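INFO batch 0412 | record 1 of 1 | parsing
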Amino acid sequence: MTRETLSLYDTTLRDGAQTHGVDFSLEDKLLIAEQLDRLGLDYVEAGYPGANPTDTELFSKDRKLGAKVTAFGMTKRPGRSISNDPGFQALLAAEADAICLVGKTWDFHVDVALGITLEENLTGIKESVEAVVASGREALLDCEHFFDGYKANPDYALSCAKTAYEAGARWVVLCDTNGGTLPEEVETIVTDVVAHIPGDHVGIHVHNDTDNGVANSLAAVRAGARQIQGTLNGLGERCGNANLTSIVPTLLLKSAYADRFETKITPEKLGTLTHASRVLDEMLNQAPNRHAPYVGEAAFAHKGGIHVSAVKKDPRTYEHVPPESVGNARKLLVSNQGGRSNILAQLESIGLSVSKDDPRVGRLVELVKDREAGGYAFEAAEASFEILARRMLGTVPQFFEVDSFRVMVERRHNALGELVTISEATVKASIDGKTVMSVGEGNGPINALDNALRKDLGPYQSYIDDLKLVDYKVRILTGGTDAVTRVLVESRDGEGRRWFTVGVSPNLVDASFEALLDSINYKLIRDGAPVPSYSFSPTRY
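INFO prediction complete | emitting tokens
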């Protein structure tokens, strides 16, 4: 059976840029556009030329993308001609393959926001779309507030959409701007629209305010719409937009859609989805959502012992799609809810081959459970588990030994008479038979301790020069003045690799130091640092 074509339209660089706390630079936009293009999307809406210097400069550049680069803007201003509207002229001057115009389709907004008659709004839509078509570019109309407008005045909302289509719009995009429409409403309304406008000219653009962005987009496809708009990782104003990171794999991997529709995204390109998602998070300097569908670190993570045992026999027992199909990976977690299956699977994943009958495995299971009973959380700190396991199996080198450390916090007036707090740390360590003492300052005791610890590791310094502490979380496990504290440290190296380590102690600084030491040792092991010839006496660190 011949499959129908679905068009995929990304607006991460425009609608996604309206996310609270997001501010893309020109270089950010260019890099993200390349990632989106590699994924195989049909359209990349790059921004709003004339609205800000970044977008204006972006649309002045010649870009080599397979996707159609789209400029976004408004229909012409009321009371102005096309030639006398600077904003519209900026759109026509943009280096773009397509132009997406946003037009009012809710009679309430036409009256309140524009202050013009309903007929004048229709004329503005018609003239604007015709001007884009005459410029030789593809025209799209984003029917703003279409679903609310349809519920209030269906005849007028439909007349706006039909006017755009009859004026030559390639796509008439139905927008759930306020994000309050539910899937059953979307399906009913889109079904009516495609009775008036061919479905292969109808698109869907929804916001996620009821957490139905993905469901609403799929409902529109079932009803006949053949273009889906959304953003990578669901970025967008308020609660975000429909999440293409979830929509795309659903279209390709679920037979209800894969058997009926085709897109430009090949299985090979789908395998880059997780990478593209994490590149965006990295650019925004935010931790990826670990529980995001398909691409999250925990999307294919298994914790219960029965689950792990079954997944090792056949992943289909607890996974709805293969993780590698979206570029992700399976994770078998170590926790006090798991048993030998979890431990063996995790040892295998880090390259440690151990017989299931090895008595050390049983001891490691008990050790993990004892540690987690005391407050450790190895499922969230796999690097610390690897250090613990290697020590139990005798495969972790003792690169250096910390003899002692001291942290001082001083609050005083500086030379300008300002009250400041200074932290200073001293670490005494044995490295390759030599004693080294390092001093570090920081904006807090942990920062100072981190700086002192990594200031001079002798022959290992080059291995940790690119090591950065990027996140630090503290949780109080028991109350009172003798509270037990758990510290989770996230580290990153120059190649963008991240790992987590954990420390537990009644003393916050001691718990932090334990996590920092695990992070450094993990980096040295993973990067193949040479094993020292000098041996140390056993140490708790």
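INFO post-check: The radius of gyration is 29 Å.
INFO record closed
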